[in-house]
Specification:
354 residues, alpha/beta, Spore Coat Polysaccharide Biosynthesis Protein SpsA, Chain A, Serine Threonine Protein Phosphatase 5, Tetratricopeptide repeat, two-stranded antiparallel ribbon, 14 helices, EC 2.4.-.-, glycosyltransferase activity, TPR-like_helical_dom_sf, transferase, glycosyltransferase
């Protein structure tokens, strides 16, 4: 059996850290906590689980902090989590089983990251991240913000899932990331394609839609991005145009994503939304049906099952209602309810049909 060091960077995480460490401690042979300037009880909570608590002066560089944490690991493999992540009981068992079968031929293990959840607690936004790496390979983190761990070699794609406990901290909006990017621009730093993409995302999240569109275009113009990010950039551009009320540019941006791959379920739903907003219900129905029949593929990019499960059915319910086909409208509402029985729209529609 190989040994595992858990390496984390933290700052003011007293609300979530205990849940995180409690969920993972059984599988760790060592826990390294790097604190970047906490002023709450974070260190006190961490001390319940480890005496390896090390200070690191924050320099607006996440990869520097993570590489510092990795440098203090002493075990065969290194695993990383954020303080607002955790594993449930079944995934902890899977991780224990993985630990038992690990050998030194494995260079890295990717795990599913459940980042968003519906009202019933089911994952509705997931993607993969490299979570466990062989220490002797000295893999490094890159990027001051939205950093990534660069790995190579024999990589296992595991079905272990890490949960992001986003709801516990959503009341703490932060301008941290966008400020880091803007400070870098002031210093005239050259942005990588990845920087351009994630800066555009930050601009979009802060409702700076025009500027976000410019940076998505700069990113796409490099032709050096990951294809999943290129597709997402086109879709995010369409969302920006939607917020600006420019419907024709919404369509242009959606169609631009077809340069990179065949239509995904999300693309089909957004096309359906476009036509439904224009009250062209037959065209909308075509695209929602395409979404339902679109096969899920694990590309490693963002996965939102809403777009091939309940959402197109709920929209079809509306379309058929507008076309006065009440039987099909009710049928699709019930199909949406099979996935999301407690969704407010599903429940409201049932009352309407009654």
């Amino acid at each position: 059996m190989q040994s595992i060091s858990l390496c984390m960077i933290v700052k003011n995480e007293e609300e979530v850290l205990e849940l995180c460490l409690s969920s993972i401690k059984e599988v760790c042979d060592e826990i390294v906590i790097v604190d970047t300037g906490s002023t709450d009880k974070t260190k006190e909570i961490a001390a319940k689980f480890t005496d390896r608590i090390i200070d690191f002066k924050w320099i607006d560089d996440f990869s520097a902090a993570r590489n510092f944490a990795f440098s203090h690991a002493t075990k065969d493999f290194i695993m990383w989590l954020d303080a607002d992540d955790s594993l449930d009981e079944m995934d902890l068992i899977k991780l224990k089983d993985l630990k038992n079968m690990l050998d030194m031929s494995v260079d890295a293990v990717s795990m599913i990251y459940h980042y968003g959840f519906d009202e019933s607690g089911n994952p509705n936004f997931s993607f993969r991240r490299n979570r466990l790496v062989k220490r002797s390979n000295q893999f490094k983190w890159f990027g001051p913000v939205h950093e990534y761990l660069e790995v190579s070699g024999n990589i296992i794609q595991s079905d272990i899932a890490v949960m992001h406990n986003r709801a516990m901290k959503q009341h703490l909006p932060s301008k941290r990331n966008i400020t880091i990017y803007e400070n870098r621009l002031k210093k005239r730093e050259v942005f990588t394609p990845r920087d351009l993409y994630y800066y555009a995302n930050e601009l979009k999240d802060h409702q700076k839609y025009r500027k976000a569109i410019r940076y998505y275009d700069k990113f796409l113009a490099t032709k050096k991005g990951w294809v999943e990010d290129e597709i997402r950039a086109c879709i995010n551009k369409s969302d920006c145009y939607q917020s600006l009320g420019e419907s024709e540019n919404v369509m242009v941006s959606l169609l631009q994503s077809l340069k990179y791959d065949s239509p995904r379920a999300e693309f089909c739903c957004k096309m359906g939304d476009y036509f439904m907003e224009k009250k062209e219900y037959e065209a909308a129905i075509f695209w929602y049906d395409c979404a339902i029949n679109n096969k899920k593929t694990d590309t490693g990019g963002f996965q939102n099952p809403d777009y091939w499960t309940w959402y197109p059915h709920l929209q079809l319910c509306v379309c058929y209602w507008r076309l006065q086909d009440l039987e099909k409208s009710c049928e699709h509402n019930e199909k949406a309810g099979e996935y999301r029985p407690d969704h407010p729209s599903v429940l409201a529609n049932r009352k309407l049909f009654e």
